[in-house]
Amino acid sequence: MRRLIKGKISLWLLLLVSVTVAEAQPGLSSTVTGHITAEVISTLTAVETSQLSFGKFSPGPQGGSLILNPENTISVMGSVWPGSGTHSAASFYVTGDPGVAYTVSLPSSPVTITHVSSARTMTVEDWTSVPFAEPG
Q: What residues of the chain score a pLDDT lower than 70?
């Protein structure tokens, strides 16, 4: 009989403590408001405004060099004969948030291009990039 009474007392104490803790919980809760900020950076976009074009030319019997400057001037060396036609340096217009850095990557070694119908080749080397002095 003692065990049964002792067990009931323990059970009542456990229930009493549980009810007291459950009633005390709402009084202990609190609310905190936090603020979060983020800045979304616009994607950089680049649009080709002028295609790279060497125009028409003839390499001549000994070959030579045809130099197209970023300023759209052309000069020839060796037996290259500059023909008629339009030549132009490639140019791109880049937009994005001010102060965002970007990189222009050009080939570091010569690139050989091949004419589609005649299969004649031309080596392009000494690539140069001339960015604008000021963003805009």
A: 1-29, 132-136
Return the domain boundaries, the chain.
45-124
pTM: 0.58
> Using an 8 Å Cβ cutoff, are 55 and 82 in contact?
yes
Q: Are 44 and 94 in contact (CB under 8 A)?
A: yes
- Which residue is associated with the tokens 């030319």? 57
**Are 88 and 52 contacting, i.e. CB atoms less than 8 angstroms apart?**
yes
pLDDT of residue 132: 59
Tell me how far apart the alpha carbons of residues 10 and 46 are, in angstroms, rounded to a whole number. 77
- Rounded to a whole number, what is the distance in angstroms from the first to the last CA of the chain? 95
Are the C-beta atoms of 99 and 85 separated by less than 8 Å? no
